[in-house]
Amino acid sequence: MIPTQPRRLFPLLLLALVALYVLFVIKEPTKAAHLTTNVVSGIAAAAESLTAFLGALG
After folding, report:
1. Radius of gyration for the chain, computed over Cα atoms and rounded to the nearest angstrom
2. What is the structure's pLDDT at 18?
3. The pTM of the whole model exceeds 0.70
4. How far, in Å, are 10, 28, 30, 40, 43 from residue 34 at the CA level?
């Protein structure tokens, strides 16, 4: 187990992901742009599906 306090683990992981993404943007900007576009469209599709599901419930 990672020896950190429970409330500090999530920000630490988030900071590590952001740092890796920044390095990826610096080294491969075109691939980073495609990755960002795909992630954002995936989140939008998930939100749309959740909205449709919740709309069908009520």
Report:
1. 17
2. 94
3. no
4. 26, 10, 6, 10, 14
Averaged over 9-37, what is the pLDDT?
Answer: 94
Residue 5 pLDDT class (50, 70, 90 cuts): low
Pick from 14, 18, 12: which is nearest to 36 by CA? 18
d(CA 18, CA 3): 21
What are the sequence ranges of the domains in the chain? 8-56
Contact 25, 32 (CB under 8 A): yes
Output the CA torsion sign for 19, 25, 31, 41: positive
